[in-house]
């Protein structure tokens, strides 16, 4: 069991560090100051634009504020800030205000940073990763497919629009593949799926158009039928 001398010694080591952090970055600001407009749970995502809205009074001007980050970059963009973290973990956002040619520290707040989730294949209301299982009847009765990233990232459902997809399977030692335009599971696609025996794997290959009209091939999804 550690003695009281140990805990006193640790206090002498870390207490100055805590005070130094408070001195350098100011007080911890509340949720009302920072609003992450893209996230329902106030999480930052690495490698993407994260809009940050600052809660100020009607007598203040957003252009008088400066935002700094400990993870990635941040810049001003039309009445809000954008931060782009470069790694998962934490990001400290520090808010400053310019008054009479002087920069005044307002405070800081830590935010969790996550990587963007791998895209899932969404079939009607169900979600599947790259190796999943699905009931054959469920697949035949479905109407459409789409790409899903996260319910937390607002607007992520519009990141990709499926332009075409293919359904493939192995039969008699040969691989067969059939392509379809759009994202509808057509009657022709359902006839093909109906040919595949339970226990076999149906392969979905998707080509989608992202924002900015960039064509992107998404992961290959292999669904084992039951």
Give a description of the structure.
The chain is of the alpha+beta class. The chain has 2 domains: 4-114, Immunoglobulin-like; 120-225, Sandwich (Immunoglobulin-like). Helices cover 16% and strands 45% of the residues. It contains 3 helices and 17 strands. The chain has helices spanning 4-25, 136-141, 187-195, and strands at 34-36, 44-45, 50-54, 65-69, 73-76, 81-84, 89-99, 102-114, 120-123, 126-128, 131-134, 145-148, 160-171, 174-181, 201-210, 214-217, 221-225. It is elongated, with a radius of gyration of 25 Å. The model is unreliable at 12-21 (pLDDT under 50).
Task: Please provide a brief summary of the model.
This protein is of the alpha+beta class and 226 residues long. The chain has helices at 4-25, 136-141, 187-195, and strands at 34-36, 44-45, 50-54, 65-69, 73-76, 81-84, 89-99, 102-114, 120-123, 126-128, 131-134, 145-148, 160-171, 174-181, 201-210, 214-217, 221-225.
């Amino acid at each position: 069991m550690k003695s009281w001398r140990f805990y006193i010694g640790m206090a002498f080591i870390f207490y100055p560090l805590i005070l130094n952090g408070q001195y350098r970055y100011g007080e911890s600001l509340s949720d009302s100051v920072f609003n992450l407009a893209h996230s329902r749970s106030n999480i930052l995502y690495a490698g993407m634009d994260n809009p940050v809205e600052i809660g100020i009074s009607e007598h203040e001007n957003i252009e008088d504020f400066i935002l700094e980050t400990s993870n990635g970059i941040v810049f001003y963009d039309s009445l809000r800030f954008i931060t782009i973290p470069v790694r998962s973990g934490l990001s400290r956002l520090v808010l400053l205000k310019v008054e009479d040619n002087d920069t005044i520290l307002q405070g800081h707040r830590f935010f969790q940073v996550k990587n963007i989730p791998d895209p899932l294949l969404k079939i009607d209301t169900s979600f599947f990763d790259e190796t999943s299982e699905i009931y054959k009847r469920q697949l035949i009765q479905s109407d459409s497919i789409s790409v899903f990233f996260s319910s937390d990232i607002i607007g992520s459902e519009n990141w990709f629009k499926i332009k075409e997809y293919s359904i493939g399977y192995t039969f008699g030692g040969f691989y067969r593949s059939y392509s379809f335009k759009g994202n509808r599971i057509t009657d022709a696609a359902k006839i093909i799926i109906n040919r595949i025996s339970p226990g076999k794997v149906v392969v979905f290959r998707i080509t989608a158009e992202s924002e900015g009209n960039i064509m992107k091939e998404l992961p290959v999804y292999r669904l084992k039928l039951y």
